[in-house]
Design brief:
This protein is of the alpha/beta class and 429 residues long. The chain is built from 13 helices and 15 strands. The longest helix is centred in the last third of the chain and has 21 residues. It is globular, with a radius of gyration of 21 Å.
Length: 429
């Protein structure tokens, strides 16, 4: 029973492993974009395991690829041996990255990928100084917590790096929010220069940024911000890392990588989540001279294992064969326009690209974060058969990240539930 499992969870799992909902659910079956819990209730999934189940559930092509690898009897060999599927996938990702002379290193998660990127940048530049964005999130590891610009996810002030935060990623509550796009970019770039000149020793290792901030509430700057920032970074010799853990693989609709919206090629990109469709896979794709900069030996026990490589390759094939980037653009436009048309008094902003949509909730007539409304929205949508997420600095932003295979009919179904739940939440609060 769910109550028994919840009690056992609380007894043996850490208190900081939070669960959604007043009555948490156990998922026991899933197919396409629908999930069924242990009580037999079925839900349309608009959060995809935090954007990880990018193709949905029970996808034959991916399952077949994994089973074919399992049939060889080889789940693991380690990177001490040649792994054909790892080399082939690395070749594809290197080409897709558009990074000159790119090389790839596979990890098990986005946290590990970002931690690896930090080690590479600090080694390459021989500096432990790092720049990150305010309101950012880059993972749970010691190094990535240190560069997370969101206090709700910063578990420790201890740090292996010296970090400074710059403006730009979260516009709604920015001191520059009222500026037009070009002036907003100018103000954020001026802030970057000021931080470099006053708060650092000059020899900064890198700036790491999410093109669209995930945990931060799917917030995003005007297109072109990171191109302007990279011009400054290049003049100082500072590396630029694009955290594509949530924005990669076509999810934003308009581009394959989120950073492409800014017309710039980073020195490094990190990836994870959607590439594995539930399998543990992440990695770094970077300039060859940067990825080769370690002077000591290193490897990854499980990163790039044959099973994950088989599944990830099938995911890339599925994205291409079904033109899912275009589907993300179409379904995202459908959801964005529908939510904006709802014009709810508790909604301050509907933002995002493709199937990465944030809905910032406020107390009517103010800009104050409406945290109770976000919590109530999760319950109201669940009651109506829809699973969504939430985030943002204050926990007042609804996060919508359905599988990239979402159909037009499912998007409309989810939209109607969201609009109805917004009305019910407003009436109740």
């Amino acid at each position: 029973m769910t109550d028994e499992l919840l009690a056992r969870h609380r007894a043996v799992m850490p208190s900081w492993m939070s669960l959604l909902y007043e009555e948490p659910i156990e998922i026991v079956h899933a197919h396409d974009r629908r999930m069924t819990d242990s009580k037999g209730r079925t839900y349309l999934d608009f959060f995809a395991g935090v954007l990880t189940n990018s193709m949905g559930y029970d996808v034959a092509e991916i399952g077949d690829a994994v089973r074919k690898q399992l049939d060889t009897g080889i789940l693991h060999t380690s990177t001490l041996y040649l792994i054909r599927s790892q080399v082939e996938l690395a070749e594809r990702i290197a080409k897709l990255s558009n990074i000159p002379d790119a090389k790839v290193f596979f990890t098990n998660s986005g946290s590990e990928a970002n931690d690896t990127a930090l080690m590479l940048a600090t080694q390459f530049r021989r500096s432990n100084q790092v720049l990150a964005m305010r309101n950012s999130y880059h993972g749970r590891s010691f190094g990535t917590v240190a560069i997370t610009g969101n206090r709700g996810w910063s578990a420790s002030a201890l740090s292996p790096v010296k970090v400074n935060y710059v403006h730009g990623g979260y516009r709604y509550r920015s001191p520059f929010r009222s500026l037009p796009d070009a002036e907003y970019i100018d103000a954020c770039v001026a802030d970057l220069v000021d931080v470099l000149d006053t708060a650092t020793a000059g020899d900064v290792a890198c700036l790491i940024a999410e093109p669209i901030q995930g945990v931060g509430g799917f917030s995003l700057p005007p297109d072109g911000l990171f191109r302007a920032m990279k011009e400054v970074l290049d003049s100082y010799g500072v590396l630029f890392i694009s955290d594509e853990v949530q924005t990669g693989w076509g999810r934003t609709g308009e581009h394959f990588w989120g950073i492409e919206a800014h017309g710039v090629t980073p020195d490094m990109m990190t990836f994870a989540k959607g590439l594995g469709n539930g399998l543990a896979v992440g990695g770094v794709v970077a300039r060859g001279d940067v990825l080769d900069c370690f002077q000591a030996q290193s490897f990854s026990t499980f990163g790039g294992n044959p099973v994950s490589m088989a599944g990830a390759t099938a995911v890339l094939d599925y994205i291409k064969d079904h033109d899912l980037q275009a589907n993300c653009a179409a379904r995202g436009a459908q959801l964005l326009s529908g939510l904006r048309a709802a014009d709810s008094p508790i909604v301050a902003e509907v933002r995002g690209k493709g199937l990465m949509i944030g809905v910032e909730l406020i107390k009517p007539g103010t800009t104050d974060p409406n945290v109770p409304a976000a919590a109530r929205m999760l319950e109201e949508t669940k009651k109506r058969g829809l699973l969504i997420g939430k985030g943002g600095l204050h926990g007042n932003v609804l996060r919508l990240g359905p599988p990239m295979t979402l159909t037009a009919e499912e998007a409309q179904e989810g939209l109607e539930i969201l609009v109805d739940a917004l009305a019910a939440t407003h009436a109740a609060l």
